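Sequence only, no structure available. Ideas?
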Amino acid sequence: MVRFADLKDAGSIAEMEKQYIECAWTKEMIENSFSERGYKFFVFESDGEVAGYCGVKTVFSEAEFLNIATRASFRSKGVATALLNAAHEYCKSENCRFIELEVNSENAAAISLYEKSGYKTVRVRKNYYKSGDALIMQKSLCQE
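Reply:
I predicted one. Tokens follow.
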């Protein structure tokens, strides 16, 4: 089940950030974002466990997808897709026209997920990550 995250989820989100994200947010950064305008985190909860999360930031008619991660034991079970869909619906409800993200060019699984969800590569930042370029991908929210 996907739901909005709250402060009690910050530890689980930070743990996954540290484990799966190259430029990880700290628990304090995540906690602080809950009081910042435009930031919203979602968690996928299964039997009381946070199986995955994602975050978005909305500014006027634009949205930025922050990070997404799924615990290894929950991969390939639709968790990331459910989180993406929840984020897209939220951003549409905030009247965002598009959503943008950056992804490591070496992360084939994430790129595939984003492409299946309708994202297109619009720019490349060379050598952005230690392990590769950053692909800037964008999805229109107006046509759905």
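The chain has a mean pLDDT of 94.
Hope that gets you unstuck.
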